[in-house]
Design brief:
Layout: H1 3-13, E1 19-23, H2 27-38, E2 42-47, H3 50-58, E3 62-65, H4 76-79, E4 84-87, H5 97-108, E5 114-120, E6 131-132, H6 143-162, E7 166-171, E8 173-175, H7 181-186, E9 192-193, E10 202-204, H8 205-217, E11 224-227, H9 235-246, E12 253-254, H10 263-268, E13 274-275, H11 278-282, H12 293-302
Parallel strand pairs: 1-2, 1-4, 2-3, 4-5, 5-7, 6-13, 7-11, 8-10, 9-12
Amino acid sequence: MSEEHGARVGAGTSAGGRRLFCFGLGFSALALARRLLEEGWAVAGTTRSEDKAAALAAEGIEVFPFDRERPREIPASALAGTTHLLSSIAPDEAGDPVIDSYGAALAAAETLQWVGYLSTTGVYGTRDGGWVDEDSDLRPSAARSRRRVAAEEAWLAAWRQDGLPVHIFRLAGIYGPGRSMLDTVRAGRAKRIDRPGQVFSRIHVDDIAAVLQASIARPNPGRVYNVCDDDPAPPAEVTAYACGLLGVEPPPLVALEEAGLSPMGLTFWSDNKRVSNRRLHEELGVDLRYPTYKAGLDALLAEGH
């Protein structure tokens, strides 16, 4: 690490209180934000929804509007004093909205100690069920995943060129309260697609927050982490397990071509791989609370979700 990188971290350490700013207060970012609020952090961030802004403000989060399609300037004071920053906003065809709009301001921020960018394991593309880790080459098969590769590079360029303390987190399929196969089954939308050999990796939203907290405690700018559980599994198996928990008959197996998936839904099935999470265990010391989909679904049901 260069002296420039080290100087930035040192400046941030002496800046006083801890403040998290989230570009995009979505499902994953909010899981971290709420944990840090409970620990006494100041938390701020952006949303496109006025209704959501009011609800988050009631929780003690300072909220600002941000939408590339309807640009409204975030005041400089919004980022002042920020020690930790998380971006969960997906890139669009023009690039990464946060880097494009605020890259220069972030590069000039002297208080930043840690920056996290939430990417996706989709950047690896398909491996026909084989394993990938953070050193695997990137072969994105979908357009949105190709945009993610470009966005990752833009954030890492800000680290290399400007000393921004960037960490990349490649998230697997996210589930949690209100967003799990249990909810899909209850809604009558569950499908069991017959595709032998197909596996996906997953991660509970609470474990995403735990990984991010562990990285904040052990910053290593420029590092990339896969964020997934220990158990890549066939999606039909997950559906059947959720049905068993709810005491309903699993839907019949159907061919992918007969499942009636949307074009977007079909793109998820173009990738078939197992994602290694060894680095988050070995480098960040994370013990996942939900190391398998069964543990995660069991807990969600027990908690009333």
